[in-house]
Specification:
This protein is an alpha/beta fold. About 35% of the residues lie in helices and about 25% in strands.
């Protein structure tokens, strides 16, 4: 592929240019190691590394042009230097332009919020396919181009990967694309240059404060997504979340709401909850779904609403809603040969943990709830004592264990969690740093009719310790335990 530099630069907010723009570019890169002859290099200031320091070696590699926020002191006559206000914003526009603006050829819907992003985006992908259309998915769990599945390395891919995947979707005939939009991606301008047909807000609770610093900053990051929506897009918000109305204060998009508690464009009501499903009412029509918990009813309401706003017939959408199945690692249930139920869920924030445990208390009857949970290392330490306390209040037995300790000492993380426990809760709490042994212990404690919740990792198939990812899957551990129980 090759493109004219002048055409590539056309959408950018340029402060100044030094050099000739009548050049042919063979690739756009933001990784200095990928720069080479006739490439366009974009120097982005990252949280850990300022890529401007790599400009000299990029020039030495034969790059034709450099986009930067600050002109280097030494300029080469063979290189075109383009100074912009924000390199990350420019990279979004360049990535879109390089791949012929793929988002403009798709009905692209973004999903943001603290919890539910993966479930909502994935179910919209599944819904669209059930309705007979080709679609793509960009999520925390996986990226899918029509039916081709690829591992996802981050919630929202970098600018170039994102546009490349969207281009692949267009080229293979996809009409729709659904993606998670993380707060990190908003701040880092990874979605700049994309045209969205719709945006969904699920909820907002404490998370990622290690990156954003304050809840207000976190809210502002999410709001950036809605502020940038075009006038012909829709913004679908959870009316029962107090932050929902904040998200759309300045949006140009047409706003719609969904709710379980108040009047809304898409109104839901829980009729009956079971461990294996729920009877719900959506806009006065009753339907059986294979999901448990009010938080999942909110997710389904947003999926239903978005599908209708995309132009699908409400009656068809309702029928397909009954066929949808839970996303891997999201309230995924397993039945033990001994008669207890195990639930694996990604809940890794206080609010998510509360939602899952409240649901389990409602549907477990007289059975006990035994919870296994931990907190990740090198992340928001403030939520550790909160999560332990919320879990202890809602569990008959709590086992604090390791999650992804990363570079931290697992024992130190457990002490942070334990600090949130009240004296009366300590007698019902065990600390077992080895996650495999913690899950096995929970299962040994369980009796017929009980529920074991294994929270925090969900779909993940690894445990990150001291910078190394070791294979670990909560679901595999449970399968091993169940196999031993059958003997």
């Amino acid at each position: 592929m090759a493109k004219d530099l002048k055409a590539l630069l056309a959408p950018l907010k340029i402060k100044q240019i030094h050099g000739d723009t009548d050049k042919v570019i063979t690739d756009v890169v933001c990784d200095s190691r990928k720069a080479g002859r006739d490439t366009l290099y974009v120097a982005v200031r990252g949280a850990l590394v300022d890529a401007h320091k790599f400009i000299p070696e990029v020039v030495a590699s034969g790059a034709a042009a450099v986009v930067c926020e600050q002109m280097p002191q030494q300029l080469s006559d063979d290189v075109t230097y383009v100074e912009v206000e924000n390199s990350s914003e420019a990279l979004g526009e360049l990535a879109s332009e390089w791949f012929d603006r793929p988002s403009e050829h798709l009905k692209l819907v973004g999903v943001t919020g603290t919890n539910g992003k993966t479930t909502v985006a994935t179910l919209l992908y599944e819904m669209t396919r059930l309705l007979g259309y080709k679609a793509g998915l960009l999520s925390t769990v996986q990226n899918i181009v029509d039916q081709r599945v690829m591992e996802a390395k981050q919630t929202t891919p970098d600018h170039l990967t994102l546009n490349r995947l969207l281009r692949e979707m267009v080229d293979c005939g996809c009409e729709y694309a659904f993606m998670e939009v993380s707060s990190h991606a908003c701040v880092q301008r990874r979605i700049d240059g994309l045209k969205f047909s719709g945006a969904i807000f699920t909820n907002l609770t404490r998370d990622h404060l290690d990156f954003h610093g304050t809840v207000d900053n976190y809210i502002a990051a999410k709001k950036m997504f809605f502020d940038a929506l075009p006038q012909d897009a829709f913004a679908l918000i959870n009316a029962d979340d107090k932050v929902g109305s904040v998200m759309v204060q300045n949006t140009r998009a047409k706003t719609y709401t969904y709710s379980l508690r108040s009047l809304a464009d898409f109104r839901g009501k829980v009729i009956e909850e079971r461990i294996d499903g729920t009877t719900v009412e959506i806009n006065r029509h009753e339907v059986e779904v294979l999901f448990t918990g009010r938080f999942n009813v909110y997710n389904l309401l947003s999926v239903y609403g978005a599908a209708v706003l995309l132009g699908f017939a409400p009656e068809e959408v309702l029928v397909k809603t009954s066929l949808l199945v839970p996303v891997s690692g999201r309230f995924q249930t397993f039945r033990s040969p001994l008669g207890y139920t195990a639930v694996v869920d990604y809940a890794h924030t206080p609010d998510a943990l509360v939602n899952v445990l409240d649901t389990l208390r409602e549907v477990s009857g007289e059975g006990h709830v035994i919870t296994v949970c931990g907190c990740g290392g090198n992340r928001d330490k403030g939520k550790r004592p909160i999560m332990a306390h919320e879990a202890a209040m809602r569990s008959d037995q709590l086992i604090l264990t390791s999650d992804n300790p990363r570079d931290e000492d697992p024992a130190a993380i457990l002490l942070d969690m334990e600090s949130g426990l009240e004296r009366g809760e300590l007698s019902r709490v065990l600390k077992i740093a080895d996650r495999r042994e913690a899950i096995r212990t929970a299962c040994r404690l369980a009796r017929k009719g009980d529920v074991v919740l294994v929270a925090g990792k969900g779909h993940e198939t690894y445990q990150e310790i001291k910078g190394v990812k070791h294979h670990f899957d909560d679901r595999e551990v449970l399968a091993q335990v169940f196999a031993e129980e059958e003997k």
